[in-house]
Write a structure and sequence with these properties.
A hairpin with a 2-residue loop joins strand 2 and strand 3. The chain contains 6 helices and 9 strands. The chain has a 5-stranded antiparallel beta sheet with strand order 8-7-6-5-9. Strands 1-2-3-4 form a 4-stranded antiparallel beta sheet, with helices on one face. The protein has helices at about 25-55, 55-80, 150-160, 170-185, 190-200, 210-220; strands at about 15-20, 80-85, 90, 95-100, 105-115, 115-125, 130-140, 145, 205-210.
């Protein structure tokens, strides 16, 4: 049998779009409502205090100064979506920003700790000043948490492994180890991302781990 050649009218197949965050409309709506309530309470509190001291006009001005930037932050978070197409990560809020994982100039592991909730993320700096994107891999609180799904992890591992300049192989190995732990049915506390999050020193809001640090951690993992 001869191999069928593509015809002139056949367009190449586009890469599948894999959501990384913001795809759950119900969750986004819930966060937006909670954020708006918090903004209203803060603006009312600061505006009320200013109104008692300087009068109604001063209170309204202070309330607006407090509310406007917080409102923009809440709306930006509600609009934020992130997905992976092939090897390109796209982040969309008011505009779009794209970073190719293969040509990224630097990849780090970022751990943030806010009130006992630790988030493990990939921080990817794009080539030629194309900006940076933060891809949340897992969020842990206590002994449980929420992790990125199997398909997104698999696609991320396949994409970063081809980045030789930023040590993508090491980060791919970390993601593959996480996938293997999930396939074995390991508890959250036994999975690499949780172990990495719990082993990091406490008391710091954000910690960045370089490729070398992640490589040393991956070397300690069981196959």
């Amino acid at each position: 049998m001869s191999e069928q050649e593509p015809t002139a009218g056949t367009s190449p197949r586009e890469p599948e779009r894999v959501p990384l965050s913001g795809d759950d409309r119900k969750a986004r709506r819930k966060r937006a409502v909670s954020g708006l309530i918090a903004v209203a309470l803060l603006a009312a509190a600061f505006g009320g205090v200013a109104g008692l001291v300087g009068g109604q006009i001063a209170g309204l001005v202070v309330a607006a100064v407090v509310a406007v930037p917080l409102l923009l932050l809440v709306l930006s978070g509600a609009r934020r979506r992130m997905w992976l197409e092939g090897t390109t990560v796209t982040v969309r809020t008011w505009g779009s920003r794209r970073v190719d994982l293969v040509t990224a100039s630097r990849i780090d592991l970022l751990l943030t700790d806010v009130r006992g909730t630790r988030t493990v993320s990939l921080l990817v700096n794009g080539a030629q000043r194309s900006g940076a994107v933060k891809i949340d891999l897992a969020v842990y609180a206590g002994t449980g948490g929420r992790e990125l799904g199997i398909l997104p992890l698999r696609r991320l591992a396949d994409a970063v492994v081809n980045n030789m300049d930023a040590g993508g192989v090491v980060f791919s190995q970390l993601l593959v180890a996480q996938l293997r732990a999930e396939a074995r049915g390991d508890a959250a506390a036994d999975r690499p991302l949780y172990r990495l999050a719990s082993a990091a020193p406490s008391g710091k809001l954000a910690q960045r781990f370089s490729m070398e640090a992640v490589s040393r951690f991956v070397a300690t993992l069981d196959g």
